[in-house]
Amino acid sequence: MQVLGVQVGTVQPLQVGDGHVLSGIRKHPVQGSVAVTALGLAGDEQADPTVHGGLAKAVYAYPLEHYEFWREYRQSAGLSADLPHGSLGENLTLAGLLESALYVGDMLCFPDCVLRVTQPREPCFKFNAVMGGPNAARAMIRSGYSGFYLAVDMPGTVTAGQEFSVLPGSRQTPLTALLKGNRDS
Fold this sequence. Notes:
Strand order of the largest sheet: 4-1-8-7-11-10-9-13
Structural class: alpha+beta
Shape: globular
Helix content: 10-25%
Number of strands: 13
Strand content: 25-35%
Order of helices and strands: EEEEEEEHEEEHHEEE
Largest sheet: 8 strands, mixed
Number of domains: 1
CATH superfamily: PK beta-barrel domain-like
CATH class: Mainly Beta
Number of helices: 3
CATH topology: M1 Pyruvate Kinase, Domain 3
Distance between the termini: 28 Å
Radius of gyration: 15 Å
């Protein structure tokens, strides 16, 4: 398992329909090591801390393996299929680890920090705006390709290219069981 990309974003206006809202969903890659604190990656911001960020949602990770689904989604809507790492709003783009293999409480052990799985992402209307379709959030939930939030158990740093391992937690609640309206329910 490997970190393919590390991304952060600042709060900026995002066009939604005919108006704008503030959002931190647009992420850009960071070179070198990035500090990981209890509240997330250095330089990363969230516009609405009532639903994003905080101790339980400090870092958002997304599997690279799901990117092809989103390329096809965008192509079917007549949009560009170019999706660089961070396009789904994730801080960490990971290879080799899917939601279906995780349980709440599992720990991702990086060389210099430890992050704990807390919950799947529940996308909102801002994700629809970024992906260019009114059903993107619904497609994320139905597909089970939600990515997952992580709490910081041991602060440190993370760097693109690092390998990591999973240390199982209590294995009581599968991450996919928490997805509302997923394909298995």
